[in-house]
Amino acid sequence: MKISIVIPIYNVEDFLKDCIESVLVQTYSNIEIILVNDGSTDSSPEICEEYALKDKRIKVVHKENGGLSDARNVGLETASGEYVYFLDSDDLIEPFAIEDLVNSAQSSNADVILFDARVINEDGSPYTELPFAMRYYRVADYSKITTGKEMFKEMLINDEYCSAVPLMFIRKSAIKNKFIPILHEDEIFTVQLLYSAKTVAYHSGVLYIRRNRQGSITTGTKSSKHYTGVYKVIEELVKIPNRDESINKYICRLYRYSQTIYHQLSKEDKKIVKNDRKGLNRIIKNNYFFGISKLKLFYYFGQACVITNPLLMKILRIPYRLLKKCTQKNKYKERINALKINKGHRRIILIGAPIHGNLGDHAIIMAEKQLFKKILSDVEIADIEMPFYKICKKDLKKCISSKDVIVISGGGWLGNQWIHNEYTVREIISSYPYNTVIIMPQTIYYETQQDVDKQISEAEKIYSSHDNLLLCLRDFNSYEFAKIHNFKEILYVPDIALYLNYDNLNLKRSNVLLCKREDIEKVISDNIWTKIELILQEKRQSYMYTTTVVKNVAVCHKENAVMKKLKEFASSKLVITDRLHAMIFSAITGTPCIAFDNTSKKVSGVYEWIKNLKYIHYVDNLDSAIVLMDEILNNEPVEFTYDSPNFNKLIDEILIRFEDKEK
Questions:
Q1: What is the 3-state secondary structure (H, E, C) of 325-386?
Q2: ∠16-19-22 over CA atoms, to 5°?
Q3: Tell me, what's the pLDDT at 374?
């Protein structure tokens, strides 16, 4: 089977050689490589000719600049293969990509094969910032061969639809529409393709390497062409003959995106798109897309200007931080009033729910709530996020009675490495001397600093002075530290996140996940991660970087974010990490894991609780990791069942304290 690989090229001299080389080393050789030079003014044309002399499979087409769509169309006209693949000239493909896609095409006989990508920075280093890094990677099960219409619907429901043409391997005869010469041309081409395709399959491997490059069409400053592009896409989507509710939802999503673009435009660009904006609003109104109430808001008022239009904020002289703080205070007032009403009843005041994006901390809160609801089902749990406590601590003091049990959420932030959290815990202990205070499983870690002895002495004084304090530690080093320094009543128990239950639904396992720390607790060097990447490439094993720390997770969405992350782990054949909760997520989902330590030794400390799990491996050097990688990846995958550590000791201690409170 002959495959045509079309590479549109415009002024990418810094990245073009890497792109072409990634195609030349493909393990599948029956390919033609069509380099379409779209009027480049740098050295890209010379690079094309240079490679054409090296390999007879390369065809070079030089043309006047007409844009990406025009270059792809010219490449498509030149292509003679049964399947065609469009590769962006600043990106790369894995050396086994075409072979894997050909195998998928032959086994499924599909018109279109969808697959995934990992993201790198301009310099080739891994890009892990979410949600952008997850835009090109899907975790739901799409193993069923179906129509393009059904595949589009499923991916849209799961919020995993990606319109990027380079993530599609296409039978040439299935292409019924050319690329339209606009920006955002992928948004219309891919939907038209899927709705005309009889069969579509999904290859779960990560085969594409997307370069996040500043100044590219995707990441560059928004202009009138971006707005017009979205308008034209919506105009064409409305015309699709078999348009259904899925396309309507997609149009609504694009319309909201158009409003975001509009508020980023310059004054001149807004004048340029004036008629386009009227036309777009007319389409939305005439096609009755007001079934979604949010869209009405976007239609009548544009997007919320206080968020997207900093200039308007300056004009109105409303500092964003002040506005945000006022909004928070109003929200907290309602919760304070609710706490006052229930004062005097037995409650758990759970302090420390995070609003940041560390999914490990969110998993801890979820597990704590699961445990308390199971053993104390009749007891109210009042969530107090850290910002809530800091802003309203005086008001909280008036709402909490001596019957309430103060529970400080678990984690790895006692000591001086995250000293602001340590100070908050000390303040809570001191502020509630007559309440039972339970600190859920934590790690204590003090870095060697000039005043470390003074810091430890202050902590010892506060922790040992409270008569009703239970301090739970999740690793033996922390437990020994607390015992030596007389931290009153202490308990050695597992990390509470290990209490979570997860049904992996027998998901198909495909990629290797690399999950590394990027903060002050990091120990493993980038050099070691690079060596791990090279080993995986030699094994022709698809992999991607992920993280358990994401941005902008709303409190109301935190459980969904944790469950989606667990699903991602459950869809992987191996996880390599130096993050504690990546190891824990692997354990919960029955996923083989190779774990390195961090500065506070909490990975190795918590590993002691799960070392009986044959699929979780702690290593302290790269050589040991390589041996395990060979063993895991060279053998047939085995499905493992998670066996949770015993939490009875913790449960008994909690119940004793609640019985005492009742008396």
A1: HHHHHHHHHHHHHHHHHCCCCCEEEEEEECCCCEHHHHHHHHHHHHHHHHHCCCCEEEEEEH
A2: 150
A3: 94
Angle between helices 452-465 and 419-431 (to 10 degrees): 30
Per the structure block, which two tokens stand in for 160? Answer: 């995993």
- Give me the phi and psi of 37, to 5 degrees please: -80, 110
Q: Bridge-partner residues for 549, per DSSP?
A: 358
pLDDT at 131: 57
CA distance 459 to 439: 14
**Which tokens sit at 220?**
């560059």
Find how far residue 580's CA is from the centre of its chain: 17
One-letter identity of residue 658: F
Alpha-carbon distances, residue 270 vs 57, 275, 322, 457, 652 (angstroms): 46, 10, 29, 62, 65
What's the per-residue H, E or C state across 227-265? HHHHHHHHHHHHHCCCCCHHHHHHHHHHHHHHHHHHCCC
Strands 92-93 and 469-473, sheet pairing: unpaired
Q: Classify residue 416 by its DSSP letter.
A: S
Residue 17 is predicted with a pLDDT of 96
Nearest to 37 by CA among 8, 6, 70: 8
Task: Output the pLDDT for position 317.
Answer: 45
Low-confidence ranges of the chain (pLDDT < 50): 290-310, 312-320, 323
- CA 469/CA 490 separation, integer angstroms: 8
75 burial type by CB count under 10 A (0-12 exposed, 13-18 middle, 19+ buried)? buried
Burial of 628 (0-12, 13-18, 19+ CB in 10 A): middle
Tell me if the pTM is above 0.85: no
Residue 41 tokens, joined:
């003014």
Reduced to 3 states, what is the DSSP secondary structure of residue 75?
A: helix
Tokens coding 154? 């499923």
Inter-residue contact 39 to 74 (CB < 8 Å): no
User: H/E element holding 324?
Assistant: helix 320-341
What is the reported pLDDT for 313?
Answer: 44
Q: What is the pLDDT, as a whole number, of residue 488?
A: 81
Find all residues with CB under 8 Å of 52, minimum gap 6, and list them.
Answer: 35, 58, 59, 60
Phi and psi dihedrals of 263, rounded to 5?
-75, -5
User: Which is it for strands 3-9 and 31-38: parallel, antiparallel or unpaired?
Assistant: parallel
